[in-house]
């Protein structure tokens, strides 16, 4: 080969390298991650999801790409975001942050595999056919968030025996809001407990809800499990302290942020389980054949510093039952 021809070959090969690298990058499977809340409060859960993916052999940026879509508590944005991920032909669509994301994802595609996390009963709400054989293109993790409200109500009553009125804070924009309210009302009726439902779907409504709770002289508050309310945990914890209202929450992070008590599913572990399912689907398994994972890790956390600030003495039985006590 003549020197001039050799140089042309080398030059042509070098010019092709960037295109080859880009082609390899584009060939990576893409995961669409849809969430109804904001990214910062979900950092631990996303870390859990990444850990599950890693267990299955996938690392973001190495052999898979994750595209995130955050609705920032605006549930009406979810259908548009889900449709965008479907247009991008993601390999798996992950619907997290509660039922609103699941509903949007299911409406957007009947072919792309969907892995969801939800605190609601996915069978009762018609999301899947059954827990053991979900069918179609969906599977996921049931976090039991909403069904634990009765347990949190019991914790409030054990914390403050004889409490007259308990406020319950819900987000009315949840698709399953009505059934959520009905369940807590039935739980309260069973133990003859008076409750007052307060609604908030934006920051101003949260302020108004706490002001109303104070005017009603509520003895305590139960903060319902909801992606928007969870994402506003710093504000809610601050208002509970401002109005001296003992409050029980869903997530451990509320207690760490200064909330009095929390009881709920270990969401980081639930998201880890979702990550492993995504990995299995990327390897060829069908979502409809993967049974719904039912989370069994629950956390009960007490913040003794907050209880002292409120002038409350936590019964020793509750302290002994706690998984974590924050001094």
Give the SSE map.
Elements: H1 3-26, E1 30-35, H2 43-55, E2 65-70, H3 78-87, E3 92-96, H4 99-108, E4 114-118, E5 138-142, H5 149-159, E6 165-170, H6 177-190, E7 194-199, H7 203-215, E8 220-223, H8 227-231, H9 233-242, E9 247-249, H10 252-256, E10 261-265, H11 267-282, E11 293-294, E12 298-303, H12 304-309, H13 316-321, E13 324-326
Parallel strand pairs: 1-2, 1-3, 3-4, 4-5, 5-11, 6-7, 6-8, 8-9, 9-10, 12-13
Antiparallel strand pairs: 10-12
Helix pairs in contact: 2-11, 3-4, 7-9
Q: Could you explain the architecture of this structure?
A:
The protein starts with a helix and ends with a strand. The longest helix has 24 residues, at 3-26. Mean pLDDT is 89; it is low at 6-11 and 13-25. 44% of the residues lie in helices and 19% in strands. With 327 residues, it is α/β, with parallel strands linked by helices. Strands 7-6-8-9-10-12-13 form a seven-stranded mixed β-sheet, with helices on both faces. It is elongated. The chain has two domains: 8-145 and 266-297, Rossmann fold (3-Layer(aba) Sandwich), CATH 3.40.50; 146-264 and 299-326, Rossmann fold.
């Amino acid at each position: 080969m003549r020197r001039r021809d050799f140089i042309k070959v080398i030059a042509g090969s070098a010019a092709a390298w960037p295109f080859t690298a880009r082609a390899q990058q584009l060939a990576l499977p893409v995961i669409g991650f849809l969430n109804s809340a904001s990214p910062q409060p979900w950092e631990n859960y996303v870390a859990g999801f990444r850990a599950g993916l890693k267990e299955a052999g996938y690392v973001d940026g190495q052999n898979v790409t994750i595209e995130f879509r955050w609705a920032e508590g605006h549930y009406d944005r979810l259908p548009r975001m889900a449709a965008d991920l479907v247009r991008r032909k993601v390999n798996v669509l992950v619907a997290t942050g509660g039922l609103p994301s699941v509903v949007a994802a299911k409406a957007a595609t009947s072919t792309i595999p969907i892995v969801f996390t939800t605190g609601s009963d996915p069978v009762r709400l018609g999301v899947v056919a059954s827990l053991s054989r979900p069918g179609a293109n969906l599977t996921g993790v049931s976090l039991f968030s909403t069904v634990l409200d009765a347990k949190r109500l019991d914790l409030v009553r054990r914390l403050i025996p004889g409490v007259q009125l308990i406020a319950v804070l819900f987000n009315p924009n949840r698709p399953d809001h009505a059934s959520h309210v009905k369940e807590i009302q039935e739980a309260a009726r069973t133990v003859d407990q008076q409750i007052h439902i307060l609604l908030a779907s934006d920051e101003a409504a949260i302020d108004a809800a706490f002001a109303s709770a104070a005017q009603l002289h509520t003895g305590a508050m139960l903060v319902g499990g909801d992606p928007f309310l969870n994402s506003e945990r710093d504000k809610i914890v601050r208002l509970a302290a401002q109005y001296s209202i003992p409050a029980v929450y869903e997530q451990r992070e509320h207690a760490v942020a200064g909330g009095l008590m929390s009881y709920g599913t270990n969401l980081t572990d639930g998201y880890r389980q979702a990550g492993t399912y995504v990995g299995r689907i990327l390897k060829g398994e069908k979502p409809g054949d993967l049974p719904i994972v039912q989370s069994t890790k629950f956390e009960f956390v007490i913040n003794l510093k907050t209880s002292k600030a409120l002038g409350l003495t936590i019964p020793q039985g509750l302290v002994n039952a706690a998984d974590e006590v924050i001094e």
